[in-house]
Every structure is written in C-alpha cells, then in structure tokens.
TrEMBL record:
The lineage of its organism: Bacteria, Pseudomonadati, Pseudomonadota, Gammaproteobacteria, Alteromonadales. Residues 151-227 form the Peptidase C51 domain. InterPro entries: CHAP_dom (IPR007921), CHP02594 (IPR013423), PGBDSf (IPR036366). It comes from the Bacteria. This is TIGR02594 family protein. It holds the Pfam family CHAP. It comes from Pseudoalteromonas prydzensis.
Length: 272
C-alpha cells in the first residue's frame, strides 16, 4: 500500500463512510511504528458510538501529534488535507523501505536480532528541527535525552543498536548512546562473524554497527548501522578500521561464520 484514497472526511465531525474509515484503519495499521503504543486497529469501517472514545480517533490524534507535531490534534482527516497527505507520504516511504529490506537477504544464522536490524534499513533523519519518530524511539532505548535526530551532537548509531537489542530482550550497556561503550557488551570476539557488533573510532567519537559480511578478498567489512550518512543502511568499510567485535554473552560464535557480501551497500560516509 503506497497511498489511500478517501472521498469524505474521517474522524471527529467527519462523514465517516464505511469504506473511508476502513481505508484509514488499514493505513494506520501500516504505520503503527510511528504511533506507539497504539495496537493494531480492527478494520471494520466503524467508530465507537461515542467517536471521542474510538481507538481509531485516538490513533489519528496520535499520528497528528507525533508525526505532524500538532499541538491540538483534531482527530479528523479531510480528503487531501494535511493529515491525509502526510499519511500517504509515510505509506509511500514505507513501500520504498520495504523494497530495500526485500533486497537485503539474511543468511541462515543464530543471530536472531539481525532480523530486527534489517527491518529498520531505510529509516533516516529528518533535516531541521523535526525528527523521525522511529529514531526518537532509538533514543529512548539508549536513554538518550535528545529530541533532534540530526546534527553531530545527536549521533544515534549507539541508540540504534540499543533499540535492536532491547527489541530482542537484551539489555544495552550503560550509556548505550556512546558508541565505544558497546565494547563492554556481552563477550569479545577475536574475529568478526555475522551479526556481531563492531566498534570503531572516528574523529570526535566512535561508531558502532552490525557485521553483515565481508568482501571476497577479506579486506573490507559490510556493516549495517544507524547514522551512516544519516540513515540505517549497509556500508562498506576497511576491515582494519574496526577495533572490537562483541556478541551477546550466551551466543556461540563457533557456529557462526562471515559470508561474502554481494548485496547492495553504500561507501562509508558520515557517522556524525
């Protein structure tokens, strides 16, 4: 789904025709990551007899508050209005991200957390004072206080790793928003394997990301990380740049390997 079409207003004070409400409910279910802690809506085309108590209305208001930054969400979606256009923008973006995720194949592995990491490929910063709500969720996972996802002071690679691990019931390190702190996570490895967390230095700080493969000659590593050129993606780095590799304490690296990476990747760029 890349867009929805509604013929009349949906929500508080709207006409709320059956098909229009269904379209909105379906769209909001596709965008649940943007409006936590909203649970999946029942797609029945109906609102509560008291619309102000409707879960669909609550989801609309939360979308308006979190994504549109409305101070006073009105709980209403007008055809081609501001909320309608933003929903379609986010749906289109999600379709594009889904295409990237489909292309990034996951090998047979016990590094189960990588499924979560791969699903985030394509999440990106929003320039200016606004922020990607998903990146703010990364901040929460690392207990980082920032509210802006862009700028060098709000580098979020460590927060991304923290969010991935928390989604898989693993506690991040203290001060997880600081990349180099991840060197104390779990147990260290002598060499990288698929799914390991890699830590490196950079000017002004550090960087942390997940290992997803190596070049055929073994001189380069492909790393899936956040804040790599301001987004979650796979980037190619010289192997020698990485200082440490760690895995969860209960992970058995003897059964893991490091495949040759042949999929899409960018050249390593900014990490600030």
């Amino acid at each position: 789904m890349s867009a929805i079409r509604i013929t009349q207003a949906v929500g508080l004070g709207g006409t709320n025709s059956l098909n229009d409400v269904k379209a909105v409910q379906t769209a909001l279910n596709k965008l649940l990551k943007l409006i936590p802690p909203t649970q999946a809506l029942i797609v029945d085309g109906r609102l509560n007899p008291r619309p102000e108590n409707s879960k669909t209305i609550a989801a609309i208001k939360l979308f308006q508050s979190k994504v549109l930054n409305m101070v006073r969400p009105d709980g209403k979606i007008d055809p081609n209005g501001r909320t309608h256009r933003k929903i379609n923008e986010k749906l289109a973006s999600q379709v594009a991200i889904s295409g990237v995720n489909t292309a990034l194949k996951m090998p047979a592995t016990n590094a189960f957390w990588m499924k979560t990491a791969i699903a985030e490929v394509g999440e990106a910063e929003i320039p200016g004072i606004k922020a990607n709500p998903q990146i703010l969720e990364y901040f929460k996972a690392s207990k980082f206080w920032g509210s802006d996802d862009s700028g060098g002071q709000n580098a979020w690679c460590g927060s991304f790793v923290a969010w991935v691990m928390k989604q898989n019931n693993m506690e991040p390190v203290k001060n997880a928003f600081r990349a180099k702190e991840w060197a104390s996570f779990g147990k260290p490895l002598d060499k990288p394997v698929y799914g390991a967390i890699g830590i490196k230095s950079r000017k002004g700080g550090g960087h942390v990301a997940f290992v997803v493969g190596q070049s055929a000659d073994g001189n380069y590593l492909y790393m899936l990380g956040g804040n790599q050129s301001n987004s979650v993606n796979v980037a190619k780095y010289k192997k020698e740049l990485w200082d440490d590799f760690v895995v969860p304490a209960n992970f058995d690296p003897s059964s893991a390997s490091l495949p040759i990476y042949t999929q899409k990747a960018s050249v390593a760029g900014s990490e600030a």
